[in-house]
Amino acid sequence: MQQPVKASFGDYLSQSTSNGGLGLGTINTSIAFLTIILGLVFYLSVNRKRVTVATN
């Protein structure tokens, strides 16, 4: 289910406005997705909770 949704969203961003998209193009859409992914990875790596193992 996720793959068709992601593909449709990517198509919506990259297609020209005459075809019903936003007209960002494939390069700009890829850059946007890469920026979002890297931002999430950075955020999660900086703000993750430290897990410690309790020893008896």
Question: What attributes does this structure have?
Answer:
single chain; 56 residues; elongated
What does this structure look like?
The chain has 2 helices and no strands. With 56 residues, it is mainly alpha-helical. The termini are far apart. The chain has one domain (2-47). The model has no long low-confidence stretch (mean pLDDT 85).
- State the helical fraction: 55-70%
Q: Look at the structure and give the mean pLDDT.
A: 85
Secondary-structure element pattern, one letter each: HH
Structural class, please?
mainly alpha
Biggest beta sheet summary: none
Beta-strand percent range: under 5%
Q: How many structural domains can be distinguished in the coordinates?
A: 1
**Could you say which overall geometry the principal axes of the C-alpha atoms support?**
elongated
Cα-based radius of gyration, to the nearest Å: 18 Å
Total number of strands: 0
Tally of helical runs:
2
Query: Ranges with pLDDT <50 over ≥5 residues?
Result: none
How are the SSEs ordered, and which strands pair?
Blueprint: H1 2-14, H2 25-47
Short description:
The chain has 2 helices and no strands. The chain has 56 residues and is mostly helical.
